[in-house]
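dumping this here before i forget
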Amino acid sequence: MSDETILATQRAGDGLRVDITSSQHKWVGDEHASEDIQKPAGPDPFAQLLGSLASCMAITVRMYTDRKGWPLDEVRVEVSDDRKPAQPLERAFAKVTLVGDLDEEQRQRVFDISKRCPVHRTLAQSVSIQTTLEA
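structure:
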C-alpha cells in the first residue's frame, strides 16, 4: 500500500485554481469555466489524468529497455481523449513513439510493455473510491 497522500486545496478568490501537494512536490491545477476567463494557472484535472497515463507509460518503457540494455534513445507517449465537457472519460488514445535502434521484435515487445504500466492497468479497470466527509 502506498503511503503517499495528495492534498488539493482550493481557496475563495482563486477562481478554480487548486494547489496540489504531495510529500515531495507542489503543483497547480486549474479549470477555465468559459473563454472569458484568463489563461488557467495549470492543467485541468483530466489533463493531469492523461498526463499521468502518458508519463507512466514512458517511465515503464524506459525502465524496461534500460534493464534489457536495449538501444532506446527516446520514448514519446501522446495521450488524448474524445471526452465532451462535463462528461466522464470513457476512452483515451495513446500513441507511443520509440526512437532508437530497436529491431522489430524489440519494438513490439516494448509497445506491449507500455500498456502494462500501473496507471494504464488502473484506468483499464474499475476503481473503487471510498470517500468520507471530514468536519
